[in-house]
Amino acid sequence: MTTPSKLALVPFVSVDHMMQLVHSIGIQQMLRDLAAYIEADFKRWELFDKTPRVASHSAEGVIELMPTSDGEVYGFKYVNGHPKNTKEGLQTVTAFGLLANVGNGYPVLLSEMTLLTGLRTAAASALVGRYLAPKGATTMAMIGNGAQSEFQCMAFQAICGVDTVRLFDIDAAAREKCARNLAGSGLTVVKCTTPEEAIMGAQIITTCTADKQYATILTDNMVGSGVHINAIGGDCPGKTELHRDILLRSDIFVEFPEQTRIEGEIQQLDPDHPVTELWQVMTGAAKGRTDARQITLFDSVGFAVEDFSALRYVRDKIKGTAFYSDLDMLADPDDPRDLFGMLLRAG
């Protein structure tokens, strides 16, 4: 047996490693760090290859690949979305991701991304909230209290200064779970029995439901002026959360229009309905919130650059730690032309 070279060993971050990494950094600090990495990459947006994610849809859900590259590093995420899974004791969303060296094509990181996607989604939401939410916003309604809800609440606390969250879910057990998990966070947690109650006094409204359907979580009469809506549940064709009239009253901000028009809330609108790209707001090329009475809407579907940022952050942070293992996943013959000979010698 030949010993693989260091170049052939790929750092692998398991779920256990990821949890250890998060706790070594601290959840809130990691959320702030991820937001900083995402912001830095959005500010160099034009360097990236960009394409809507490659999706394989079924009656049960969707499996997607999300690729991108900045010209030096290539990255992709594999992710699924199966709303029925919860009833079967499974995660609705699971994911893993990879980074590779563009120069030679060799992978340089393989990582779990179920936990990491939860963190990066929340960090991206709160980063956008920092640009678009009303000045001095302290209260957020969290409608949909599933697996993503605690991450969202803590990210808005860490990045935007939210100190109160008002929780609602049609499943009381989910609401209780979220409140229990946030008990030691420093947030004031208010459990609500209707969505109307949840949005009372909230300057930020986050919707994060899982059902794959055209739903109306927020009706037009529920949304007053001056709020920021963080709509993160609509993330595939045929799945929305907001009444169309809300969209017509809002200034809409998106990650990548070509993807959001297929998967986001704006799939309900005409294909040429105006939207603003977030990278333009972050670079100062476009305006974000301009008026206290303005309704801003982040039509979030998640984009590959955000995953690239998160993987880049993990790669930087695991250096010199024990929070990864080396995988022997690349063939490494002494003579690169003699792959078959390497196989023979192994016998």
Topology record:
Layout: E1 9-13, H1 15-25, H2 27-42, E2 54-57, E3 62-69, E4 73-81, E5 95-101, E6 107-112, H3 114-132, E7 139-143, H4 149-160, E8 164-168, H5 172-181, E9 188-191, H6 195-198, E10 204-207, E11 214-218, E12 228-231, E13 240-242, H7 244-249, E14 251-254, H8 257-263, E15 276-277, H9 278-283, E16 296-299, H10 304-318, E17 325-328, H11 339-346
Parallel strand pairs: 1-6, 7-8, 7-10, 8-9, 10-12, 11-13, 12-16, 14-15, 14-16
Antiparallel strand pairs: 1-17, 2-3, 3-4, 4-5, 5-6
The CATH superfamily of the largest domain is NAD(P)-binding Rossmann-like Domain
What is the strand arrangement across the widest sheet?
9-8-7-10-12-16-14-15
Q: Report the average pLDDT across residues.
A: 94
Number of strands: 17
CATH fold label of the largest domain: Rossmann fold
Distance between the termini: 8 Å
